[in-house]
Amino acid sequence: MIKENQRILNVILVFIDVLVISISLVCSLWLRFKTTLFGPIGGHLGFYSYALFLLLAIIPVYLILYFAFGLYKPRRTYKNIFSEATKLIKVNILAFITLVSILFIIHQPDFSRIMLFLLAIIATFFGIIERFIIRSILKNLRVHHRNLKHILIVGDNDLAFSFARKIRNNSYLGFVISGFLGRADHVGAEIEGSQIIGAFEDLDYILETNSYDRVVLAIPLKYYYKINELVESCEKVGIKAEIIPDYIRYFPAQPSIDMIEDIPIINIRYVPLDDDFNKFLKFMSDYVISIIAIIITSPIMIITAVAIKLTSPGPVIFKQERMGHNGKIFMMYKFRSMKVQDPSEEKSEWTTRDDPRKTKVGDIIRKTSIDELPQFFNVLKGEMSVVGPRPERPYFVEQFKETIPKYMVKHQVKPGLTGWAQIHGCRGDTSIKKRIEYDIEYVENWHMGLDLAIMIKTALKKNPNAY
Fold first, then answer.
1. For residue 339, how far is the Cα from the chain centroid?
2. What pTM, to 2 d.p., does this model score?
3. pLDDT at position 402
4. Which terminal residue of the chain has fewer beta carbons within 10 Å of its beta carbon, N or C?
């Protein structure tokens, strides 16, 4: 029944996608041939030619790519639209390249390539809106107890109860815990709103007399010798068993799986910026934003440089070693806000709120974060990002990596001018442990929307710990 519902949903999605692509084509044709926004109109093919190309090439190419990128797979566990949005961007880039290649092969020089480029942009925009609306409707249905999937949990330990608690606290997932199987002396007990309805050895009978959509095995490591038997019981009635590994407690992050031949290897940390496409998006956004920021803030930087030169002897720009991506050392730039000091003292001292080393101009530019503006040049050099974990001096890194768990995880991405920890007030003399928790959360959950939110909050929010 559930599979049938999924097929019906996919048919509806395909129909809506075809409609959205067709509307996007009409909008692209109007923008290209009914306005002069993209150059002179001139002579062009008729609407019939574009409609024919839509049916014979555009729609098939888009649908093939949608299926290839998994956009028709059930996605109950999506917390936001950004993962689908990234896939839609990739689909439209590939669709544009594919369609232009088809036109080259069939030698059709009169077909507007500009219109196809507009189609890619508009189809991306409309596609993201469409998917957001559909996911919102489905989430709303599940919250109101529609389109539910029933789960049987095999296990009566903390792992099983923790999983059940997650399901109960996230009703948008559309799952219902229909019961637990556990040890014989626990049968009848009620935990997390569901009852232990039988013992492990009752699995065959329970599956034959009840209907479940999923069976989740959450048993302690010492009982793993039973897994083969439990899996066979599930497969006997045509249900796929799913396993929550007991050693998940040792995973410091969301795991991902690679395959070497037919052997799965679990990566204990998922880093979205390891993906080449995500890396490219991040690089392009950093490059464009840093150039725009340098142009906009250049008057402020010139005035600051003059003020520093007139009020304090020494260089305008302060350079300091910091540890960056993959532990690489680089020189980070700042406007000098302190008196010139001995490098050996500078590398091992923190800045304090009423630090006597600060100059009068330095006190102002530190409170307003103007001293950080030269780091946009670090971004242009590829040493930093606009958003990311703040880089630390190697002297302190050597100390923290021995005393702060998972401290070095932050170096799996480029450091940034601002970050997830900074907008939560973790700057200056604040908890390093808390700062690292936010940094790891950013590393593992990066998406462009998160970067945008951090930049906006950085611009709007004054940090009381900036000194």
1. 41
2. 0.68
3. 87
4. N
